[in-house]
Amino acid sequence: MRKKQTNSAYGGIALDDLRLLQAIAERGSLGGAAKQLGVDHSSAFRRLASLEARVGARLFERARRGYTPTPTGEVAIAAAARIGEELDTLDRRLLGEDLRLSGKVRVTTTDTLLHVVAPLFAQFREREPGIVVEVAAANAIFDLSRRDADLAIRPTATVPEHLVARRVASVAIAPYAAPSYLARHAATVTALAGHDWIAPDESLSHVGSARWIATHVAPERIVHRGDSLLALLQAAKAGLGVTALPCYLGDCEPALQRIGAALPEATVPLWLITHPDLRQVRRIGVLAEFLFERLRAQAALFSGERARPA
């Protein structure tokens, strides 16, 4: 009799199956789950169909609006979450015993900070050549509990309580425009809110600049929107209007001019964040301390005092 094989299976359900269930539940669609897991849509479809055939029940109801767990699916998703959390905890605790100054450290940060942090990674490489830094540049918040990343460098108003965060600096936000735009409008527009504005779209509604614009700028003055701060910067460089940018970004762009004081309501802290279970990993701790010191040394850049990256 042939022995049934599974991939790290619990009772015939593989860990990969559990990860698929969690991803579908989190994203609400099979396509979103496939993207999160780094597999193609057809593979995710086959894996879900195979899992449902093995358990003898539908785990999700399919509809145009997405995938909704069935009662059986909710039981399976809850179990997957418990098992996944235990495995993530074990992974972090085992990693915490690693005292080597070699290996990989994964750092997540925003794309707007790359011109500041990339030179720091080069300096760190000269100091610790055995440590390889992997950078995930994205605006999405990575899950440090699942070790999507080991360290995060983020400008954000709040940090989850279960994480360890060190405040690096205060990030000032100020209005910027291209000289070409100002040449056309500066003589006729006196109030900041009276300019043509380039605003973040709904995906960035949580950032301080978006909140300030929503409060102080009339909707009819918004002439353009973008889903990233780099998109807003490029639109401002093209002369479309005024936009609000972090000073560490706007002050380093020679094609833009700051046209007013920093917006106090939009200021946010810059944090260096990790998971408490990873603090004892020597390579992570060494990199974290290096980044904290070097970023603190550039506090004037973040606060808008016209400093340049070191």
Task: Please write out the topology.
Blueprint: E1 9-10, E2 13-14, H1 15-27, H2 30-37, H3 41-55, E3 60-63, E4 66-69, H4 71-95, E5 103-109, H5 114-127, E6 131-137, E7 151-155, E8 164-171, E9 173-177, H6 179-185, E10 197-200, H7 208-216, E11 222-226, H8 229-237, E12 243-246, H9 247-250, E13 257-258, E14 268-274, H10 282-296, H11 299-303
Parallel strand pairs: 5-6, 5-7, 10-11
Antiparallel strand pairs: 1-2, 3-4, 7-14, 8-14, 9-12, 9-13
Describe this structure in words.
The protein is α/β, with parallel strands linked by helices and 310 residues long. The chain folds into 3 domains: 87 residues, Winged helix-like DNA-binding domain superfamily/Winged helix DNA-binding domain (Arc Repressor Mutant, subunit A, Orthogonal Bundle); 99 residues, Periplasmic binding protein-like II (D-Maltodextrin-Binding Protein, domain 2, 3-Layer(aba) Sandwich); 94 residues, D-Maltodextrin-Binding Protein, domain 2, CATH 3.40.190.290. It has a 5-stranded mixed β-sheet with strand order 6-5-7-14-8. Strands 12-9-13 form a 3-stranded antiparallel β-sheet, sandwiched between helices. Strand 10, helix 7 and strand 11 form a beta-alpha-beta unit. Helix 1 packs across helix 2, helix 1 crosses helix 4 and helix 2 crosses helix 3. It comes from Lysobacter cavernae.
CATH homologous superfamily grouping of the largest domain: Periplasmic binding protein-like II
Shape: globular
Structural class: alpha/beta
Q: Low-confidence runs (pLDDT<50, min 5 residues)?
A: 1-11
Mean pLDDT: 85
Identify the CATH class of the largest domain.
Alpha Beta
First-residue to last-residue Cα separation: 68 Å
Listing every helix as H and every strand as E from the N terminus to the C terminus, the arrangement reads EEHHHEEHEHEEEEHEHEHEHEEHH
**What does the main sheet amount to?**
5 strands, mixed
Strand content: 15-25%
CATH architecture of the largest domain: 3-Layer(aba) Sandwich
DSSP strand count: 14
CATH fold naming of the largest domain:
D-Maltodextrin-Binding Protein, domain 2
Percent range of helical residues: 40-55%
